[in-house]
Each structure stands twice: as C-alpha cells, then as structure tokens.
Amino acid sequence: MKSERSKRSFIRSPRTIRWKILGLFGGGSLLFFLLIFSAGHFGLSIRLYQVGLGLTLLLALLYFVTRNLLKPLERLTTMVNRVQQGDLNARVTVGDKDEIGVLSAAFNTMAEEISRWHQEFEVAVQERTAVLGKFSEVIEQSPVSIVITDILGNIEFVNPKFSELTGYSMEEVLGENPRILKSGETPYQTYKKLWETISSGHIWEGDLANRKKSGEIFWEHAKISPITTGEGVITGYVGIKEDITAQRQLESQLLQSQKMEAMGTLAGGIAHDFNNILTVISGYGTILKMKFEDDPASVAMIDEILMAEARAEEMTKSLLMFSRKEEIRLVPVNLTEIMRGLQKSLSRLIREDIELKIELPDGNLQVMADKGQLEQLIVNLAVNARDAMPSGGLLSITVADKCLIESDFLAEELKAQERYAVITVSDTGLGMDKATQERIFDPFFTTKAVGKGTGLGLSMAYSAVKKHGGAIYFWSEPGEGTTFKIYLPLLGHQPERSERPEDVPFLFGSETLLLVEDDAAIRKIMTTLLTEQGYTLLTAENGEEGEELFRSNADEIALVISDVIMPKKNGWEMYQAICRMKSDIPVIFMSGYTADIIDDDQINTCSLLLKPVNPITLLSKIREILDGGNPVIVNSPMSP
C-alpha cells in the first residue's frame, strides 16, 4: 500500500479543479432556477430575474476561461507524473511565452538534467557493480582464507577457502567466534598480543596452530587488521590467513636433517675413537688367549671379553650406518642365528604387558645381508609394534622359508619360482588408517608425539630392505593391529658355518713392516703382536713421519700398514708418495670409516681392514700378501 501511494501524483490535476468549477457552476444554476421558481410562486420582482441571468452568464464565462487556462497546466501535470513514474523522456510542448509556457520550458530543462544525471548514475552503478563483482570473485576464488568478524570477534563472513581448509561451512561458523579453531598448541601470550594489537587499531601478523573440524592440526600465517570508518572508529576485523602446514613440515624435516647431519658427524668421530679402543681390547685379549691357551678357565674369561668387544663392534657399525657414514656390506649370514641372537635384546625392549612370541625354523637360512642393518631393521619394527600397543598385547615374530609361485600377490615385484626368507612382524595394536598407510615409508613422517619419534625408522627399514634386494609389505586395519612381511632372497646353497678366524693357525714372519698409526695405544698393541710373531716393526705417528721413515728404509720394508685418517698427512696421501719411491710396495689400510678420504673406486683397489682390527685377521692378511696369495697393489700415477 505504501509503494502504491508513493506512485500517486504529487501535483493536483487541473481536471480536478475544472470539475470543482463545473460543480460551482451547476450549483449556481440550480440556485438560479430555484430563485426563478420561488419568484414566480411567491411573486418576487423582475430584477431578481435579471440578477440571476447575469450570474449565470458570468459563471459560463468563468468556465470557458478556466478551461482554456487549465488545459496547458493539465498537460504539464501529466508529464510531471510520467517523470515521477520513471519516464525520463517525457517532455511538455511549450506554447505561448506566458507563465505556463515559462513553467513548461523550466520543466523540460529539469527533465533533461534529471535524465543526464540518471544516465551518469547508471554508468557509475554499472562500473561499481563490475568492480564489486571482481572483488567478489577474488574473495570467492582466493587461495587464502578470509574471515570477517564484528567488533566482538564474532564471525560475519568466511570465503570458500576457509571452508575448504577447516572443514566448517559458512552456515556453521556464522555468529561463532574464531576460537572454535583453537588447538591448544598456540601459546596464550600469542592471542593476548593479537588482541592488544588489533584493538588498538594496528595490524597483527604471526603464525597460529589451529584445529580443523576433523581434529587435524594445521598451521596458518595470519594478518589480522581492524576495519574502521572514516572517523577511525573500529567496526570489525578482517583476517587473511595462508595455510603453511606443508612449509612447517619442510622446515621441521630440514631441522631434523641438520640434526641427523650433526649426529652423523659426531658418530663418525666417536666411532673412530671407539674403534681404536676396541682394537686395543681385541688385540690384548687375543694375545692373552694365546699365552693362556693351556688354562681353560682363563681362556673362558678372555672369550667373554672378546665377545663383549664383538658386540660393541656391531653397535659401532650400526651407529655408523645410521649416520650414513658407512655403506652396507653384504656378506652371507645365517638369518636364523641372527634372530636367536636378537631374542634377549628384543625382550628388554618391550614392556611387561606385551607378550613376545618368536618362531624360528630348525635349519639355517642363508641370505646376503649386512648383519648390523638387518638387526636394526628388526629392532625398529619391534619398537614400532611396542608403541602401537599402549595397553599391551602380543608381538609375534616368525621366520620362514617360502618359494614364490606365479599366483602369489608378490610375483610382480619379486621373482617367482625363487626361494625367499620371510620375516613376519605382527602386533595386536592400534593399527593404521588409510591416510597413515599412504605415507608410512615417507622420511620424517611419524604419528608419534613430538620428541617420541624421528619418522626415520620405517623409511630406513624400506631403504635397507631394497638394498638387500628384497621387498617389504604390510597389512593394517584400525583397531586390528599391523603386520609387516620382509622378503629376502635366499642363497642358492646352504653352506656350513665357515671356520672362525680364531681357528686359523697363526702365521709367523721375519719381514720388516712399516706401521703408521696416530693412536699410541694401537701402535703399542700392534708392536707387541707383530714382534711376538717374529716381524721387525718400524712405527710412525703420522703420514709425514711415515713417508720419511720409508724413504730411509725403502729397501728393507716389505709391507706398509697404515691408518687412513691421521694428522699432517693422511694415509692415502702418504702411500701415494711412497709409491713414487717404490711402485710395487703393498699396503694394508686400517680405518673406522673411509668415505671422507678415499672414494669407492680407490677403496676397491686396496687391502682394507675396518677397525676394530681383529689380530688374527691382520696376521692372516699380512701372510696372504707377503706370500703372494693375491696381494693387492695400488700404483701411483707416477708408476709405469
């Protein structure tokens, strides 16, 4: 009703005025006839007739004059009403230059101005609408989240990216406070500083750890600023937030890599010194065993010392491989024997509320493997299984011999009709969902809490299995545990255990040897060992001394025994200089790790004993080289 009333003409129509005049004329005529009738009936005078006739003529003249005056005004009123109703093209025909004509001309001018203003307004509206449309598209398609709140922080608008990232629809968050995204991992001081900054009219910028509707934690880099009027009054806030979860993960991985690099450097240094110590222990233990060979009780105690040294040696190798300072060395090993040796260690790793069940075959399962890496692989899987059973459960490890056939589901990756040793590690723990399974072998990926795991265990297990020429598979369901299966190729034959180095008869000699070693304890034990076997020994503390000593005794020295990493001049540089003096001089290098000094091709051309050096292995290698049993010679670039 209100809109209809607003459409009515705001100028009274001349037609209405004319009808009033006609009404007045009709009323006057009726009064005139009543007077005549009364005069005839009551005998009034003839003058009254004359007055009535004059009044009638006057009214008729007034009507005709008014009709001609009001007709232009009626047309003007009609045009005004048309303009009011939106017809901006309505115009009045200007007649005489009287007041009505002037008014009509003014109306036409006004209508022209209104039409021009209207066109300019429409253009401005279209332009503004286009700009607002682009703004709307930018906000709708923005790759960052946009949140607008009122002065109290209640959400008034979010864009689609916000919903895509958080999982909350616009309808779910309208009227809510952004605190619904709080994860508890952003410090309280950060939020306090945020509100102090924006409430004072400034822009706050920083990182927030938020929680999605699904419960997943994600990181955002946010810029939050106040929305103000022209007078500077804050009416709300707008936040522009970018998902930096992937960036945070990369930074974490980089930090972890740097930690691992530092650990590798530390491990290399520790292993070098530790292997020197183990070499001394092994050397003196072996000498004592030779001296007390007729005393079984003493030999038994010395054997315990040597066994402890062997276990420490394996730990050092594992540390070096973990720090990537030493490549794996595949040798024939008995998988069954390795698993038996791990039983006691695994029982110490798990908790009392977890039952450990290990099933091993009766026969030997020979595979090509690096014993230290294989043990580390199994330990990693056992530790993961333990952590997946916070309330206890069963950890089952089995080793079996399997011959794959074409119908096996592994036939696509592993060769069918071949035999494999299969290690199965199963737990009755929490299991894994699909998202976790897709990333299980990714480096640095872990589902454990911060500080509880590096995310390297399974990725290293995967890498180790591949280096052993095998394959690793798993099965898991949430709440139903996890099973890992490792397939390692079995050797074509099952050799009996090789003769232990301790059983190799000692070989004596009388040659002159040059020993170059910077560690005084190792020089001392080797001097004792070799001189007792009949050798004449010349010793030097570093490469420079070794080179000068060889220069003075080149004709007498039959073999050089040298450490690789030494001060002043390393063993390889020294040996190159010695070869220029005597090109056919053989060498035995000793080192805890050599990757920093000699590349792989050079290592393959040398006789290399890894520390801790077993005394019997050293004596055997010396006789092998000096007696012509495949000695290995490294020629210098100056050699013919």
Strand segment count: 17
Helix content: 40-55%
How far apart, in Å, are the first and last alpha carbons? 116 Å
Tell me the Rg in angstroms.
51 Å
Structural class designation: alpha/beta
Strand count, sense and closure of the main sheet?
5 strands, antiparallel
Count of helical stretches: 18
| Mean residue pLDDT | 76
The largest sheet has its strands arranged as 2-1-5-4-3
Strand content: 15-25%
Quick rundown:
By secondary structure, the protein is of the alpha/beta class. The chain has 18 helices and 17 strands.
Descriptive terms for the model:
elongated; 640 residues; disordered C terminus
Would you mind describing this structure in some detail?
With 640 residues, this protein is an alpha/beta fold. The protein is built from 18 helices and 17 strands. The strands form 4 sheets. A 5-stranded antiparallel beta sheet has the order 2-1-5-4-3, sandwiched between helices. A 5-stranded mixed beta sheet has the order 7-9-10-12-11. α8 (245-291) packs antiparallel against α9, α8 packs parallel to α14 (520-532) and α15 runs parallel beside α16 (571-581). It is elongated and about 180 Å long. Mean pLDDT is 76; it is low at 1-13, 449-456, 493-506 and 630-640.
Strand-helix topology:
Elements: H1 2-6, H2 14-42, H3 46-84, H4 99-141, E1 145-150, E2 155-158, H5 160-166, H6 170-173, H7 188-199, E3 204-211, E4 217-228, E5 234-243, H8 245-291, H9 296-322, E6 331-334, H10 335-349, E7 354-359, E8 366-369, H11 371-387, E9 393-403, E10 419-427, H12 434-438, H13 457-467, E11 471-476, E12 482-489, E13 512-516, H14 520-532, E14 536-540, H15 543-552, E15 557-563, H16 571-581, E16 587-591, H17 600-604, E17 607-610, H18 615-626
Parallel strand pairs: 7-9, 13-14, 13-15, 15-16, 16-17
Antiparallel strand pairs: 1-2, 1-5, 3-4, 4-5, 6-8, 9-10, 10-12, 11-12
